[in-house]
Structure formats: structure tokens, C-alpha cells
Write a structure and sequence with these properties.
alpha/beta, Rossmann fold, two-stranded antiparallel sheet, 23% strand, 10 strands, 260 residues, 8-stranded mixed β-sheet
Length: 260
């Protein structure tokens, strides 16, 4: 196995080897910075003990929990999930379907949606929670356990770009995204709505094994003959209406309907 890994690494250009090695062997924050953060932590701890007048809580060294990276000037936000989750939830709440089905999206998003709309979530990995309004089915997006044209409302947020790359325990498949799109189209009922998001870029690209990225043209091709009802794009920390190849990597949000 080690010999095989060495042979693969030899094929990677020198700069990429350096970047990969730095990512694997060194933390993102340097040792000197970590020392400062830890020193600040214990300074705060000693100061807190001195000013503590609240006898309802004990302050014990055995209970220390070093949270070192949260003193930031701004609120930390994952802009992609912030915007796409808000967009998807709003679309579903406005549509008020009798029942909603989600295929593989972030569980936190689906937990919220399920408290307003009865929701069935499908994922390749088991979901070990119990929540009123939410039901779970273990399944594969490339072979979904639903009849043709049977579901009125479906979401799959930041999912199909991963399929076939093995990142989440799925089988390697170079056509994983195409098969996923075909299944979502197959199960969507006439006049039903499909909400998806996926990375977009200036050309179709694989960032192995994180995800693929797609051009707008290819996304529309994947989901034809569905009708595009709305599209939004996230570039860095901005949500807008237009796909722009010159901006490079971003995230596209798409609402499709099966018009018969």
C-alpha cells in the first residue's frame, strides 16, 4: 500500500506535492500562534477565577475545555450553507407541499424543514435520531426507492456533485452525478418541484475527492426537460441572480419543475 501511495505521489507536480504535504503535516495555525492562544486562554482563566463571585458554579481545572479559535472580529459563517439553506427552506415553506422528500442534504437543514412540513429524508448513511415530523429511509441516490413520477416536492442540496467520488462511502462512479440527476427527474411528479444546489465553475471540473463543479450549461443539460423556475448564485459572501464564468468557483441554486 505504501509503495502504491509513493508511486501516485510521484505523478503529482512538484508544487502540488508541496501543498499537499504542508496540508497533511502542518496545522493551519502555526506553533507560535497556538502558544499565544493557549497563553491567552490561561490568562483569561486566572482572571475569571479572581472576579468570580457566583457561588452557584464551581470553577475547576479538571473541567477546562480549550476553545481557542472563537475570538474573531466577525461572526464566523459558512456562506454557502447559510445562503443555500435559507433559500431552500423559504422555497419549500412558500410552496406548502403536503409532504416533502429530501435526498442526502445536510441533516440540520432537514430537521428544521420537518418541523413545518412532514419530511422523509433519504441518505446512504443511517441517521441515528428521532424527531417528530421527520422520517428516514436509507437509500442510494443512484437507485432511489420510489416509483416513477411519485413525489411532488424534492430537495437535494449540495449532494449530486459528490456522488461517485467515494467521499461518503459511496461506490466510485465517473457518472455518479449524471445518474443522480436522472433519478431525481424520474421520481419527480408532474408539476412537482425540485430544489438543488451544486458547485459551479467556468468549466466542468473534478476536485477529487471533495466534489465536482459544473457549468450552468451542463446543469441545465443534466436536468432537461425540467423547466428552470429560478436560479441563484453564491460567489464568496454574496448571493446574486447571475452566473458569471469570470468569477470562477461558486455555488448554484436551482428550482426546477416538471411541466407536463
Amino acid at each position: 500500500m505504501l509503495k502504491r501511495i509513493k508511486n501516485l505521489i510521484k505523478k503529482v507536480p512538484g508544487v502540488k506535492i508541496f501543498l499537499l504535504g504542508r496540508k497533511l503535516l502542518f496545522p493551519k495555525i502555526g506553533l507560535f500562534k497556538k502558544i499565544i492562544l493557549i497563553s491567552n486562554f490561561f490568562t483569561d482563566f486566572q482572571s475569571y477565577k479572581k472576579i468570580n463571585k457566583n457561588k452557584n458554579f464551581s470553577v475547576l481545572k479538571n473541567n477546562l475545555k480549550l476553545c481557542l479559535f472563537d475570538k474573531t472580529a466577525d461572526t464566523l459563517v459558512d456562506y454557502v450553507y447559510f445562503y443555500q439553506n435559507a433559500w431552500c427552506a423559504k422555497k419549500i415553506f412558500q410552496a406548502k407541499p403536503r409532504e416533502h422528500h429530501d435526498i442526502g442534504s445536510q441533516a440540520g437543514l432537514i430537521s428544521i424543514i420537518s418541523q413545518f412540513i412532514p419530511t422523509i429524508m433519504v441518505d446512504i448513511r443511517p441517521l441515528d435520531v428521532r424527531l417528530s415530523g421527520l422520517n428516514f429511509i436509507q437509500g442510494d441516490i443512484t437507485a432511489l426507492p420510489f416509483k416513477d413520477s411519485s413525489l411532488d416536492s424534492i430537495s437535494s442540496i449540495c449532494v449530486i456533485e459528490h456522488i461517485g467520488l467515494g467521499r461518503y462511502g459511496d461506490k466510485l462512479d465517473s457518472f455518479g452525478s449524471e445518474k443522480s440527476a436522472a433519478e431525481l427527474k424520474r421520481i419527480l411528479s408532474p408539476n412537482g418541484s425540485l430544489y438543488i444546489s451544486l458547485p459551479v465553475d467556468k468549466e466542468n471540473t473534478i476536485y477529487f475527492n471533495a466534489h465536482r463543479a459544473f457549468t450552468r450549461e451542463y446543469v441545465l443539460k443534466l436536468f432537461e426537460p425540467l423547466k428552470l423556475m429560478e436560479e441563484k448564485y453564491i460567489y464568496k459572501n454574496k448571493l446574486g441572480d447571475n452566473y458569471d464564468k469570470t468569477k470562477g468557483f461558486g455555488t448554484g441554486l436551482f428550482h426546477f419543475k416538471k411541466i407536463i
